[in-house]
Specification:
The complex is a heterodimer of chains A (513) and B (350). Chain A is of the alpha/beta class. Chain A is built from 20 helices and 18 strands. Classes of the chains: A alpha/beta (513), B alpha/beta (350).
């Protein structure tokens, strides 16, 4: 009954921050191959390569059209053959996981690492001081001790959705298990109590590195971030530390595919070659804080060149997936979510059916220990039902959620703000969980509290309640400005189910819960 | 097939007389799948020029040498894996006549930073002469057999990065030639200085070979990737590479920092072997080995041309601090047949 680590493709960058560069969403209609343009499945943090790719386009005439995607999703897509004819290259932070899957690995021709970045911890300067840390001496065990004894808190991305989270998880598990070589299932089992303790310090989770940094700056009460060095170097005020007992390093292999045509593969090779020229390597390290793979180019100023042990990435899929599975179901703090669901009259028919399908689909993805509250509303909140996925009997909770979902019916007006206030009231404080609110509505607010009143309500929230983000989903005729404001006000993020589907939006939000 | 190609080229040339590539009398273009370690050679503008002077142009794609078997090579003129064993396998599959052109070769070496090399030397696992040295394979394999960690070696405590099991990071032996050649050399030593030839030898060496691979966890699929990682500062203390990769960087005049090149006292050599799939491919392969200018350029990229060693020695005279030009004290382990080596790699990966 445990959640499968490798997810079906769906949860993706539905609403990516505008990078000024053209990019596609994985759910969107495939673009046809056009000579000179490479359709590339890429890790989302590569959006910082835009100026570099602009330069390479000038040099080579090759345009990169990225589609941002998490590692596991990319590997699934390759394995199912869905990248055949749809993409010309894959460019993830690492192919370590890809190579553990023979059905995906066989789709790959050549892999050309372009730059590297190790996992690191970025810590607020005042926290470094308070803890009395000398950056060169910090180990994962010391970080663990600071979590346990000093209340150190941090944010990291969801390992099941983000490359940086996965690499961080492997680093932490390798170091804290005391494994002397590649992780085994036994190492993970042995380290579980220490890992649990370590992950008690995680106060922020995110489906992407970009939102993690934003949420960190907004919250102001989280001490540190775990991510790639290159990402952390871009966040102001952080002291970036590569733990002394080892790291996992991303090497960004530009990867060509067996399914693409010879011209496209030749362009991928030329692109890799252009990215490895001296001037471009210099541009990469200066602009993106990644490390060059060419001996004649020095890492940018501020990138410490002291050596660190490279912690081996698991050599088998069962270990890698097992580690992800323990993280989701056992190691991390559980999530606690209120789904505020518009079931007003306008949802009648097809829309309500789509909501039911999406929610039912989502029950396959809830983690053990997770608390789910359904709060359907029309002119007011219609009912409040809470279910917990009990590890002893996960099926019972999931069945109950499905049953409540099936019983939803559409009528009434749309009281968005009154319902949100009620959700905040329900959540209260004091529980050790990742707490959030998901708001799905197909229209604008027509009943109950007004936007202004909700602003006032939110301003009066205190403590942990203030930190609860609302993740609104654009659907049907909902009002973009209204929902964007709610996301902005509460520190959430807006998701768009109009461009792809409600299933995809719910699925993507999972990374933030 | 050649005839058809010629006709097409003539027709195209008639329509686009300005396209140099297709001018019927001038450039012959060949397509090839090559091992990643030769990508820079073929991309070198001087190589492109030297080839053009002889009337050739080449389009390459890289692939792990053993992975070439999985590719559909229709439309290619030759494959250029980095070893004799995968080349023979391909030659068998495509019924290519022997002998195959072997224009150049390169021995396997182990890269280390000075600190790691000194710790190995201080514990009898290596001998050093400045920035080059010899890795004692017998002692290394003995350490591996006993899961020796860096912490158990004298002197390692001065280097924070030297912790965990002592191992050489290699490519995946199932898909990549350098990883497979590593097992060839290691199994030769583990098998009492005899090349593994059958089930009994495979059984005897399997546990150690499995250990050498499994401690590494996920492996890269190409020697280019492991080498790039090392250059970039990714911290595997010991990394398997081709001598050619190091020599090429040194030939660029780069400061090699605290790089130390360890030659295993029993090593295997990659014979870069052309598997012609068309007559053009064969002619091209023969040119690579015979043309003095192309041999000179191969040396610049760190390869040792077949035959005389003088060209390599002359060109690397200034790099003897790192390179063992005459391969003094280095013994070549014979490589098992491709069938045996494949099976060895498969079992090692588990």
């Amino acid at each position: 009954m445990r959640r499968r680590a490798a997810l079906a493709l769906s949860a993706l960058m539905l609403l990516t921050a505008c990078t000024g560069q053209q990019h596609d969403d994985p759910g969107s209609t495939p673009t046809a191959y056009a000579p000179g343009t490479l359709r590339v499945l890429a890790s989302s943090e590569l959006s910082d390569m835009t100026p570099v790719l602009d330069r390479v386009r000038e040099d080579t005439g090759i345009t990169v059209r990225p589609t941002y995607i998490g590692t596991l999703d990319a590997v699934d897509l390759l394995a199912r053959g869905e990248a055949d004819g749809t993409y010309d290259a894959v460019w993830l932070s690492s192919n370590d996981y890809l190579r553990l899957r023979p059905d995906a690995a066989e789709k790959v021709v050549s892999e050309m690492p372009v730059m590297t970045s190790p996992v690191a911890i970025g810590v607020r300067a005042e926290t470094v001081k308070k803890l009395g840390w000398k950056p060169d001496d910090v180990t994962w065990s010391r970080i663990e001790r600071a979590v346990r004894d000093g209340g150190l808190t941090y944010g990291m991305t969801d390992p099941a959705r983000s490359n940086s989270g996965f690499a961080t998880l492997v680093s932490v598990a390798s170091a804290l298990s005391g494994a002397q070589s590649a992780l085994t299932d036994a190492d993970v089992a042995k380290a579980t109590p220490r890992l649990k303790e370590f992950f008690e310090g995680q106060q922020l989770t995110s489906g992407s590195s970009g939102w993690l940094a934003t949420a960190y700056e907004r919250r102001g009460n989280v001490d540190a971030l775990l991510n790639y060095e290159s990402v952390l170097k871009g966040v102001p005020g952080l002291t970036v530390i590569r733990p002394r007992d080892g790291v996992v390093t991303a090497d960004y292999p530009l990867t060509s595919l067996t399914s693409s045509n010879a011209t496209a593969r030749e362009d991928v090779r030329r692109l890799a070659e252009a990215l490895r020229t001296e001037p471009v390597q210099r541009l990469i390290t200066e602009r993106t804080h990644r490390r060059p793979v060419r001996a004649s180019v020095q890492p940018a100023a501020g990138l410490d060149t002291g050596l660190r042990r490279e912690l081996p990435f698991p050599g088998s899929r069962s270990v890698a997936d097992g580690l992800l599975d323990s993280y989701e179901n056992e190691l991390r703090r559980p999530s606690r979510t209120v789904y505020v669901l518009d079931t007003s009259g306008s949802m009648e028919g097809d829309r309500l059916e789509r909501l039911k399908t999406a929610l039912t689909g989502l029950t396959g993805d809830f983690r053990e220990r997770e608390e789910v509250t359904l709060m359907p509303f029309g002119s007011a909140v219609k009912s409040v039902t809470t279910h917990v996925v009990d590890p002893a009997d996960p099926r019972a909770g999931l069945d109950a959620i499905r049953k409540d979902t099936a019983a939803l019916s559409a009528d009434g007006d749309t009281a968005i703000y009154t319902s949100l206030e009620k959700a905040y009231g329900h959540l209260g404080t004091g529980q050790d969980t990742f707490t959030s609110i998901v708001l799905m509505t197909d229209g604008e607010n027509t009943a109950g509290a007004k936007a202004r009143e909700f602003d006032g309500f939110h301003a009066k929230l205190t403590g942990a309640r203030r930190d609860i983000p609302v993740f609104p989903i654009l659907f049907g005729d909902s009002d973009h400005a209204e929902l964007a404001h709610i996301a902005e006000l509460t520190g959430g993020r807006l998701f768009d189910a109009r461009k792809s589907s409600l299933d995809d939006a719910f699925e993507e939000i999972r990374g933030y819960q | 097939m050649l005839l058809i190609g010629g006709v097409v080229a003539a027709v195209v040339a008639g329509r686009h007389a300005d396209n140099a590539e297709d001018r019927a009398t001038a450039t012959r273009t060949v397509r090839a799948v090559i091992g990643s370690e030769k990508a820079e050679f073929f991309a070198d503008p001087d190589v492109v020029k030297a080839l053009a002077a002889k009337g050739w142009a080449v389009k390459t794609e890289t692939s792990g040498s053993w992975a070439m078997e999985e590719l559909d090579l229709k439309g290619y003129d030759f494959a250029f894996p980095s070893g004799k064993a995968p080349a023979d396998e391909l030659a068998g599959k495509y019924r290519v006549r022997q002998p195959l052109p072997r224009p150049f070769y390169s021995p396997l070496v182990v890269l280390a930073h000075r600190g790691a090399a000194q710790v190995l030397a201080g514990n009898g696992l290596a001998t050093l002469e400045g920035s080059r040295g010899t890795l004692r394979m017998g002692a290394y394999l003995e350490a591996a057999r006993h899961d020796r960690t860096w912490q158990q070696l004298k002197g390692a405590e001065q280097h924070g990065e030297l912790t965990g099991t002592v191992y050489i990071a290699t490519t995946d032996p199932v898909s990549s030639n350098s990883g497979a050649l590593y097992l060839a050399a290691a199994s030769y030593v583990a098998n009492g200085d005899r090349v593994a030839t059958g089930d009994a030898d495979l059984d005897r060496t399997a546990p150690l070979m499995r250990k050498l691979v499994s401690v590494q966890g996920a492996q890269q699929s190409s020697s280019d990737a492991t080498f790039r990682d090392f250059v970039s500062g990714v911290g595997n203390p010991l990394v398997l590479a081709y001598e050619s990769q190091v020599a090429a960087v040194l030939n660029e005049g780069q400061d090699a920092g605290d790089l130390t090149v360890l030659y295993p006292d029993t090593t295997a050599t990659s014979d870069h072997t052309v598997v012609p799939l068309t007559e053009r491919g064969r002619a091209f392969g023969e040119l690579l080995g015979s043309d003095p200018e192309l041999r000179r350029l191969a040396v610049r990229h760190g390869f040792r041309p077949q035959g005389a060693t003088a060209e390599f020695a002359r060109a690397t005279a200034a790099r003897t601090a790192y390179l063992n030009q005459q391969l003094t004290g280095v013994r070549q382990a014979p490589v098992p047949t491709s069938e045996v080596l494949h099976e060895m790699a498969r079992r090692a990966r588990g």
